[in-house]
Amino acid sequence: MIKKLVESVPPGGAHETDVVIIGAGPVGLFAVFELGLLGIKARVIDILDHPGGQCIELYPEKPILDIPAIKTISGEQLTRQLLDQIEPFGAQFHLNEMAITLEKTDAGKWRIKTDMGTMIEAPVICIAAGGGSFQPKKPPIPGVDDYEGDTVFYAVREREKFRGKNIVIAGGGDSALDWTLDLEPIAEKITLVHRREEFRAAPDSVEKMKALVDAGKIDFHVAQITGLKGADGKIEAVEVESKSDGAYDLPCDTLLAFYGLTMKLGPIADFGVNLIENRVEVDTEKFETSVPGIFCIGDMAHYPGKLKLILSGFHEAALMSHGAFHYVFPDKKLKFQHTTSAKDLQAKVGEG
């Protein structure tokens, strides 16, 4: 799985770096490479628990046909190859976290804070958030708001919080299957609920889940969740209905609901940058926003003639990196070099 390829920094704490990249999709990952060539360190924040952005969430196996010199490549393959390309630069990833506030420090740097209490200071912020941050779709269950954040969750932020719990996991995609497999060893009980026998998850994960069912280690119900039972934010059971057994209750103390994701602009709207039609206005020289030191690349960037293509984002990442250089190294002169002939650049990526 992609999320196993990247070690995420534990949430919380205060950190410093040269550039904070918001978004770990292909464009954000390639920005790590372009910055690294210039000797610029980066930390990457993403609300998902793995890198890849839309490529992984929306089309991990569908062919991408417009990456130069590559006839066809899947979203997952592209993500893996980008991670391999940036490995020499040692970028730090803060996954499963959302950037929520941004402020200027007395020293003139930016301080960004996440919803998990992580704080990072840097002279440059680069927004590479695609169409926005992925937000979980709420299940159409009456009264679910009363339990959210207490015993009903749409993501796993801290795995240990679920140790010893009697968990119902709802959904049929990769997130539902991945967490079913991941939490089974530490949970008191796992019950997976999906409205049909077929799954949208990786075949290997489905086979592993079925093996756990056959071994009696987890339960699986083909049913639809219709309601919740409990009080004061504490869930006691989920009400389900199936074609074969009708309506019945599944006792539990925790519900993990993975009903898919939707994209929203999110807290970026409050960063003080100029917006046009829910996109961030940038120049086409450096892809800098209306706020000095804040850049934007990828689908989130707006400028005349903008094409929402990965290859466009790669181009934007290169120019952004050159613009960021002057904030990170204000006393240095940027020397443009080609990787085909610059021995120091080749050494940085382990070539030559």
Describe what you observe in this structure.
- By secondary structure, this protein is α/β, with parallel strands linked by helices.
- The chain has 2 domains: 2-135 and 262-348, FAD/NAD(P)-binding domain (3-Layer(bba) Sandwich), CATH 3.50.50.60; 138-259, FAD/NAD(P)-binding domain.
- Helix content is 21%, strand content 29%.
- It has helices spanning 26-37, 54-57, 75-86, 174-183, 203-214, 310-328, 343-348; strands spanning 14-16, 19-22, 42-46, 63-64, 73-74, 92-95, 99-104, 110-114, 119-122, 124-127, 133-136, 152-153, 166-170, 189-194, 219-222, 224-231, 234-242, 246-251, 254-257, 261-264, 275-276, 279-281, 294-296, 301-302.
- A 5-stranded parallel beta sheet has the order 6-3-2-10-23, with helices on one face. It has a 5-stranded parallel beta sheet with strand order 12-19-13-14-15, with helices on one face.
- Strand 16 (224-231) and strand 17 form a beta hairpin.
- The longest helix is centred in the last third of the chain and has 19 residues, at 310-328.
- It is elongated and about 70 Å long.
- The two termini are 31 Å apart.
- The mean pLDDT is 90.
Estimated structural class = alpha/beta
Range of strand content: 25-35%
Q: What's the name of the CATH homologous superfamily of the largest domain?
A: FAD/NAD(P)-binding domain
CATH architecture of the largest domain: 3-Layer(bba) Sandwich
Give the N-to-C terminal Cα separation: 31 Å
The Rg value, from CA coordinates, equals: 22 Å
Would you tell me which CATH topology of the largest domain applies?
FAD/NAD(P)-binding domain
Described by strand count, sense and barrel closure, the largest sheet is: 5 strands, parallel
Name the strands of the widest sheet in spatial order.
6-3-2-10-23
